[in-house]
Amino acid sequence: MAKSPRIQDISELANVAPSTVSHVLNGTASISDEVSERILAAARETGYLAKRRRKAAVALLPTVLLAASEANFPKSDRNYVSWTMLNAFRQECRNRSIRLIPQIDPGDKIIPENLVNAIERHKPQGVAIMQDDNYELIDAVHDLDPSIVILSGQDPSMRVDTVSPGNRFAAQMATDYLFRLGHRRIAHVTYGTRLIGQHRKMGFLEAYRESAHRMPPGAIIDVETFRPEVVTRNMLNWLSAQPRPLPFTAFFCAADNVAIGVMAALAEAGIKVPEDVSVLGFDNVESGKRQNPPLSTIHVPMEEIGHVALNLLEEARTLPKNERSARRVELGCRVVVRGTTAGPARSG
Amino acid sequence: MAKSPRIQDISELANVAPSTVSHVLNGTASISDEVSERILAAARETGYLAKRRRKAAVALLPTVLLAASEANFPKSDRNYVSWTMLNAFRQECRNRSIRLIPQIDPGDKIIPENLVNAIERHKPQGVAIMQDDNYELIDAVHDLDPSIVILSGQDPSMRVDTVSPGNRFAAQMATDYLFRLGHRRIAHVTYGTRLIGQHRKMGFLEAYRESAHRMPPGAIIDVETFRPEVVTRNMLNWLSAQPRPLPFTAFFCAADNVAIGVMAALAEAGIKVPEDVSVLGFDNVESGKRQNPPLSTIHVPMEEIGHVALNLLEEARTLPKNERSARRVELGCRVVVRGTTAGPARSG
DNA sequence: CTGAAAGCGCTTACAG
DNA sequence: CTGAAAGCGCTTACAG
């Protein structure tokens, strides 16, 4: 570890006395803007500001409980998206020297009683709940002492903090992007009943609703799972029942894995991407880059969720519960244009 | 100002040596849970933790520019809601010794060029934009050096931070509350084209969509403005065209001022609240409490928006722009039950 | 508005 | 895991 930056390092870098640095950093004397700026720049450069901030948060949150169900707890990078989130969250805890205690319930739900017991036992200052759409859970824990945050989930009753990607807005933005390319007949390929998929679908519908374009009939295509092989089977089925040329010029998929399955089906049916139809994924998964052509997609900042979640837990510790409303945070996503999106075919 | 708390104060309160306090506060030695807890409690009690946190943020944000248009800048508490927000924001800047520079454009829009010039001139570290639905503005400023946050607004392109009440979720929650009271035929009284109203309407529509209940025809009632006198005139008109008993058992209003106007109209038409119909407002403004009966409403934490906005601006200064996604923060609202909501009349 | 110098408060190496 | 003590780093009262 590099030696911890001191005020003296800043004063040398900025060419002023250490006392001047101290004044600027604490607002204890009014120093000229020019010198102030120079000192602040040096303070940032040496890492002094970051160090001070880090220190201020230590001890606010010595222990955090990580609650998940077996089903939602990714054991490998097969479940790439939650894997990325979980690892970034763990790393962030390490950076802040927070002790992280996992509390994993078997099955596919977190059992409220188990979580309450674990809180009783470990007395954590914060609890992070992994993407669980289980609302009795919130009833059971929102009033307890530790601060609560849900990672990649929602709380419609707005009683606990949540952090998730802005799925709905991002899907709307994605659809708008396809509109801007000239597409008018876009299909949305979606699966399952998980909230994430619901929100992405809502964004798609909203984009049509707020545009001047009419959504074509049959534009929502449901597939069974997000596993590419299954999606390919489903889509080949769907394709065989469609007229040619296809009544859609673009497929906006609720996940990259779905998009990869769709691309395989299109290839098998002899339909060219992006010449005949465009395909747009969602998640920005590694394997998307290796498709041929490489998959256009929506980048979702899963690696930032942990950082934001811990900031929320820390902030919550600095304010009394009844003076602080729950925060629902959505993180901005962005379109990543690669090879599978283009303007619609002339005849399409 | 009280004397600044020192480590010694904590050590006395917690009955340990100052060095032990230092270890716990910096994580430099592992101290028993019991002693740790005692020290942390004392550290919080003396205000030491809060002091350290406050100090860590000084100098991150010496100057903030407050951008608004004349029309959006409340000059008195006639515009109670934004007035509350603005004052709390100013107070929060004072607490953090941030110099706040107002930049008010005439008319009802912030002019992007003016804001860019003001940024050039004052070189603020942060810019707070007051509730402006003007998206060219974001194009013009999102890439500049200072961090940007929009107060009580949205950014569908998800490029800058925003803080606003969770209008949509809150309206959905409000409607669910009326469902739970037994109401099935609820009207939503709304006005204008401002985004806030749109979101509240969306929440109302969504509550019906996600419920088992059918939304009755004519359930969206548009009034001209939110001024109670005008609303009363509009509603008397509307009431005169309705059969008795009314086809609705509850009025969910997009603002308290609207609800106050609705109540006056109902009184004039001899319809009793809450016996004949329930009325629910939105905003929790002071004058609602003085109605007869006192108005049930949705509390909107406007006074917290400034705090959250400054936290976002500060946090943005600690991370490089390209490593940090924009945050869209919505604050939780809650139902405040007073005298104007009850179960529907038996015959209703 | 800046800097030299005194001294306060915090950290840390060490003994138990 | 805790505490007494040395000394480092930061703050502040003051001169210019």
Q: How would you describe this structure to a colleague?
A:
The structure is a homodimer of 348-residue chains. By secondary structure, chain A is of the alpha/beta class. Chain A has three domains: 7-51, no CATH class; 63-165 and 303-331, Response regulator (Rossmann fold, 3-Layer(aba) Sandwich), CATH 3.40.50; 167-300, Rossmann fold (3-Layer(aba) Sandwich), CATH 3.40.50. Chain A is 44% helix and 16% strand. Chain A contains 13 helices and twelve strands. The first copy, chain A, has a six-stranded parallel beta sheet, with helices on both faces. Chain A has a four-stranded parallel beta sheet with strand order 7-6-8-9, sandwiched between helices. In chain A, strands 10-12 form a two-stranded antiparallel sheet. In chain A, strand 3, helix 7 (135-141) and strand 4 form a beta-alpha-beta unit. In chain A, helix 5 (80-95) crosses helix 13, helix 8 packs across helix 9 (195-210) and helix 10 (228-240) crosses helix 11. Chain A is globular and about 75 Å long. Chains A and B meet through helix 2, helix 3, helix 4, helix 8 and helix 13 of A and helix 2, helix 3, helix 4, helix 8 and helix 13 of B. Strand 11 of chain A pairs antiparallel with strand 11 (327-331) of chain B. Chain A binds a DNA duplex (16 and 16 nucleotides) through helix 2. Chains A, B: It comes from Cognatishimia activa. Chains A, B: Keywords: DNA-binding, Transcription, Transcription regulation. Chains A, B: This is Purine nucleotide synthesis repressor. Chains A, B: GO terms for molecular function: DNA-binding transcription factor activity; transcription cis-regulatory region binding.
